[in-house]
Design brief:
It is a single chain. The chain is of the alpha/beta class and about 260 residues long. The protein has 2 domains: about 160 residues, Rossmann fold (3-Layer(aba) Sandwich); about 100 residues, Arc Repressor Mutant, subunit A (Orthogonal Bundle), CATH 1.10.10. Helix content is about 50%, strand content about 10%. α8 crosses α11 and α9 crosses α10. The relative contact order is 0.10.
Length: about 260
């Protein structure tokens, strides 16, 4: 009886100490200044930032190694975007809650976020206190969505029967993003740890599934779906066209990325 009481008291003390420990976070954003600002903000709010990543692939590795309570991910990152990184994090560390930082607020993003196991979405236009609240809410087992994103979520589920299923597998999404970033097949194969023939096979399957015959078409699809970052200075792009590749993608003023764009 004494031993049982001792173990009970010990477990109570350990649980109490754990509840007093700061929440452990991993941050991922490809912009150094943004990442450092987030780290300062969240540290000043009492959280412990245990790792920072500059792309989705690094974020997955950090989460697997350090098992944080919460991972805060930008949607658009090189090598692996926030949605695909969240899917891998969910498999690698199921107890880690994921928050997505985004400038988008469309139905497609909301559905994909839920399917990826993401517990919170915070718009970049919102105040710092919203991100702090989101971290606390998801770490406590809750879900955080702003009012605008909540409306988009409701609309997404209301119309979800009209949405076509995603034709690509998680691996094909990774390959598509790397193609859109302008990486040659040999480099894609090396980064994914597969043979060049396998990488070429993935590329062919993507083109067949999407009904696209040219690389420019793949880049356009990736940009439109939000799977890849918009090319900027220093990022290779296989397209030689000038102007903003997103300029003619029609969007409704509210939540919707217009279908058929």
């Amino acid at each position: 009886m004494r031993a049982r009481a001792y173990i009970h008291d010990l477990m109570t003390v350990l649980a109490s100490r754990r509840s007093d420990m700061p929440l452990r976070l991993v941050l991922a954003d490809d912009h150094v200044v943004v990442r450092q600002a987030l780290s300062l903000l969240l540290t000043s709010a009492g959280f412990h930032v245990v790792g920072e990543a500059s792309n989705g692939r690094e974020a997955v590795i950090l989460v697997r190694e350090r098992a944080p309570d919460v991972a805060v991910l930008d949607v658009v990152m090189p090598l692996l975007n926030g949605l695909d990184a969240a899917r891998e994090i969910h498999r690698a560390s199921p107890r880690t809650s994921v928050i997505l930082l985004t400038s988008r607020h469309d139905e497609q993003l909301m559905l994909e976020a839920v399917q990826a196991g993401i517990r919170g979405c915070v718009q970049k236009t919102h105040e710092a206190k919203d991100l702090i609240r989101a971290v606390r809410d998801v770490a406590a087992g809750g879900v955080y969505l702003s009012a605008a994103l909540s409306r988009c979520m409701v609309e997404a589920y209301r119309t979800r029967t009209a949405q076509p299923p995603d034709p690509l597998s998680p691996r094909e999404h990774q390959v598509l993003q790397l193609i859109a970033e302008g990486r040659p097949t040999r480099e894609i194969a090396r980064m994914l740890g597969v043979s060049v023939k396998t990488a070429e096979s993935h590329r062919a399957h993507i083109m067949r599934k999407l009904g696209i015959r040219q690389t420019d078409g793949l880049v356009r699809y990736a940009l439109q779906s939000g799977s890849a970052p918009v090319p900027r200075e220093g990022l290779r792009s296989p397209s030689r066209s000038s102007g903003n590749p997103l300029s003619d993608i029609p969007r409704d003023p509210d939540c919707r990325l217009r279908r058929g764009a």
